[in-house]
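Notes from the 1:1 (GR / supervisor)

We went over the backlog. Supervisor wanted to see one worked example end to end before approving the batch request, so GR pasted a single chain during the call. The sequence is below; no edits were made to it. Supervisor asked that the structure be written out right there so they could see what the output format looks like.
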Amino acid sequence: MGKTVYILGAGFSMEFGAPSQANLLKAIYDLKNHSNYSKLKKRKVNMWIEELDKFIVTSLKVSEEEKIHYPLEDIYTPIDKSIVEGCSFKDYDIYKLFTLRNTLNNLVMLALKNEIDKAVGKEALLEKFSQFIINQCKSRLLNESEDRVSIITTNWDIILDNSLHRTINKDPIPKGHKFSGVLDYCCYISSLDERDHKVKPGLYAIGKGRYNVKLLKLHGSLNWSQCPKCSRLYVKLYQRFNGAYIFKKYYCRHCEKNYNLNKCYTNKLFTNLITPTFLKNLNNIQNKLVWQNAGIELSEAEKIVFVGYSLPQADFEFKQLMSRMLRKDVNIEVYLTAQDNYLKLNGAIDYGKAGYRYRNFFSGRNIKMYFGGTLEFINNLSL
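Structure output shown during the call:
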C-alpha cells in the first residue's frame, strides 16, 4: 500500500467544538463570564483581557462595536513585526510587546479550551477517525518499514492529539514494554511528567518494536512547552487540557540537573505557538524539524487528503512546501463545506471560495473535491 497523508485545517477541529479564528477574539472576551476559575485565576484572566482590550481600543484604535470582530492577524502582526524590527509600537516598548504577545497567547489557549469544553455529541466520530489511523499505523508491528499514513495539521488545539492517545492506550501493553504505541510529533520531545512513559519519540518506539502515529503540527500546539536554554520540547497529553502552562510555571529538569539551576528564568518553559501572521517565525529548531519531516511525508505520499483546510493565502510557506515536495502524479482529495463550493447556482465561478483556490493551485494535478465537510469524510471511512 502507498502512503496517504491527511492534511487537517481549522474546519476539522471546528466540527468538534473549536472556534474559528474569526471567532477567537469573541471567545476571549467571553472568558470574563467563565465561572469555573478560582478567584485568583479569574482575577488574572480578567487582567489579561483588560490589557489586550487596551491595546486593541487605544493603540489600534478599534471601536467598541467592532473589536470582537477584529482579525487576530491584525493584532499579532504589528506586535510581531515591531519585535522583529526591534522598535516600539505606540506606547509599547519591546519588553511590553513581548509581555503582550504572551498575554494574547495565554488568552487564545484558554478561549480554545473553553469553547471545546462546551462541545458534546461527536466523540464517536472523532474516535472512528483515530481508530482508522491507528489501524494503519499498527502495520509497523509486523514490518517496521511499513509506513502507510501520517497527519499534518495547522491547528493548535489538542482535540485529535487526545483522541489518538486515548485510542492507542486502549491496546494492552505487551509484556516487557511500557507502552503499546506512541503519538509521534516528529521532533525531539520529552515528557513534561517524568514518570509518564507513554510520551516518547517515535523512533524510540519503533526501535523498541512498537508503532508510532505521526501527527505533524506545523504551527505548534497547546500542549507543547519549550526550554529557552536547551530547546527541548516538553509534552503532556491531557485527557482534558486544564491550562497548566498558563497558570503554573514549569522549568526544564534537564537544565536544572546539568547546570545546577533552581527555577531560573533561563530554563523556564515557554509556549511553542506560531502566531497567525504573515511574519511567521519558523526558525525555532523544533518547528524546523516538524517542517522538514512534513516535507518528507509529502514527498513520499501517493495520496493527499485535505479535510477542513481552506488553503488560505496566509499559509504561503506551506503552499511553497507542497509545491516543492509533492509528486507530479500524487492523487488529491479535498473535503470542504458547501459554503466553500466555488460554483454558484447559475454555474458561475466564485473566485473567493476555498474550492476555487484548490482548483487553481492544483489545476495540473489529479484532484477530486467534495463539499460535505468533515462529517462526510469520517462517515465514509472503513475500519
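Supervisor's comment: The chain has two domains: 3-18+121-379, 21-118.
Batch request approved.
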